[in-house]
Description:
By secondary structure, this protein is of the alpha+beta class. The chain has helices at 11-15, 52-58, 66-73, 142-158, 203-212, 215-229, 239-262, 313-328, 335-360, 369-381, 386-393, 404-408, 422-438, 443-453, 461-472, 477-486; strands spanning 7-9, 34-36, 46-50, 85-87, 90-93, 96-100, 106-113, 119-125, 164-177, 186-197, 264-265, 287-288. Strands 1-7-8-10-9-3 form a 6-stranded antiparallel sheet.
Amino acid sequence: MQLTKATFEQRLVSALPGEAEADQGPRQVHGACFSRVRPTPVAAPELLGWSQGCADMLGLTAPEDPEAVAAVLGGNRLLPGMAPFAACYGGHQFGNWAGQLGDGRAINLGELIAPDGGRWELQLKGAGPTPYSRTADGRAVLRSSVREFLCSEAMHHLGVPTTRALSLVTTGEDVVRDMFYDGHPRPEPGAIVCRVAPSFLRFGNLELPAVRGDRALLERLAEHVLTELYPDCAGPRPEAHAHWFAEVCRRTAVMVAHWMRVGFVHGVMNTDNMSLLGLTIDYGPYGWLEGFDPEWTPNTTDLPGKRYCFGNQPAIAMWNLARLGQALMPLGVSEAGIEAGLDAYRSTYEATFPDMLAAKLGLAQLDDDALVSDLFTLLQRVETDMTLFFRNLAEVQLAADAPAASRLEPLADAYYSGPPPEAEVLGWLDRYAAALALQGVSEDQRKARMNRANPRFVLRNYLAQQVIDAAEAGDTAPLSRLLDVLRAPYEEQPEHADLAARRPEWARHKAGCSMLSCSS
């Protein structure tokens, strides 16, 4: 099925109160879950990237007419059944209530009805101003759009719960941005990403009416979440709302455990960036842990307190869930019901993440917490690449009588500035081998488990920046190549070994290759 022939509906628009289509000027929106708003047409939409994997999920074939597809996914044409809107929500940003936020540059086109009956919302990010844009232009630049397009698909293929990305469209227009917030704005190529998810509702959608005391709106929205997103939680209210809250908690715990498994750092875990479906959403200043450092954050805005650093992510997720729970209390959800949901988060994370750590080590189960904590201490002794270390650990000879040099050689590529003391590494390897032997894990079993849990390829920031630089120069081949490689992150792909290398030294402080701002 071609995109231009797809069937679209919009249940949220028909079920919930919203503003009638009006001007796109910034304003406070009350008594509405959304504002009807059309994408602002662009000068010359061109299809730069297309994810056939995402298209397959939607039941779409490759574009036969790229210009027609670019017109739709660039915001210049609406298809029958589309009812575009921007959502109204609030959120806690860096721990503080920020009031009304909303979709400032994202416009939901409608729900695509897939041939298998699945319903998928298509949302354009960078499609122009909305009532929630405040003083901004509602646009996005190519660099941030490339990063979101690639990361959405990379995370899916890593097995991390995530929104998806269907397309990347350049607009033929420049967008002015101050990348470092240092008073030096410059024009950059504009682009639009088409994001895909069953729903883009987030914690902040419920927080805003709760904080405003708009119980009627909160109740209608919570009912929509229950009936459309969590129908299995149906039952008497308010208990049913407590049940779906607990399910959100469980899904969020699984999502964050996956982040920690692959070394992903979201960078901006505000409550308006947390999905009610437990999906990774809003790829902005993210990064992958390269040098193993639990206090690392990729977000320059987060540097003063490192609130959203790698090691804080599990605790921040629970803090955010507690804010969502508070938003449900006006509906009669009890404190005990909220605490039960948070307990579900704790128990799910405490069961899920150790199992993931065990798989990363090839163990049947994690019986010795000290084995892992001592390993993490070793990884911090010197700058050690997390992805390379765990992947290469599968190749280490564990036999105690093997020469020390041959036992350590597979790990050499993981160190940025030399290995930790050999005696400490060898001592840990002996303990690791003993744990495997105690569980009766064979070498073949160990390697198979580890290579299923530890990716060879992740979307390192320097790789994304190289693709961005090429795309800005008109070369899209690196984008296509990297996207193809990221579709099979657990396979060796020796012909693409350069894309598995640790961050080169030149990229340590280069713009876009390590730290990022929220500017896009």
